[in-house]
Design goal:
By secondary structure, this protein is an all-alpha fold. The chain is built from nine helices and no strands.
Amino acid sequence: MGEKTTGDLCSELMSASDINSYLSENQPYFSEESISQLLMEMYRKKSISKAALARKAGMSEVYLHQVFSGRRNPSRDRLICLCIGLEAALEETQQVLKQAGYAQLYPKSKRDAIITYGILHHTELGEINDKLFSENEKTLF
């Protein structure tokens, strides 16, 4: 059984006679990894405490623990903050957003361009927020 692309799955879905057969035939291709699992994998690769991560991501330790345990589903902005705190690469950040079902960072959006630039240049979260504020864009927190 070869890997199906997103395009393959989309074509099959559009031509499917019923949803149940599509779901059963394509079960192996559905992503099952939760955001908390993905973030935990990223966290394990870093040498940072959860307390330090919470500070760098602009959130409380309690909230961070709830996200990692799967009891909280963070918003798009909170996920971006976590990725910045984890010093994730742009590709990793885009993957997290995609996995969570959120829009990826889009360079045609002024706000997203500022955030993307910050991620690419390993800018601290506070500095990214300052630039967003100075450009009259919604800050991340």
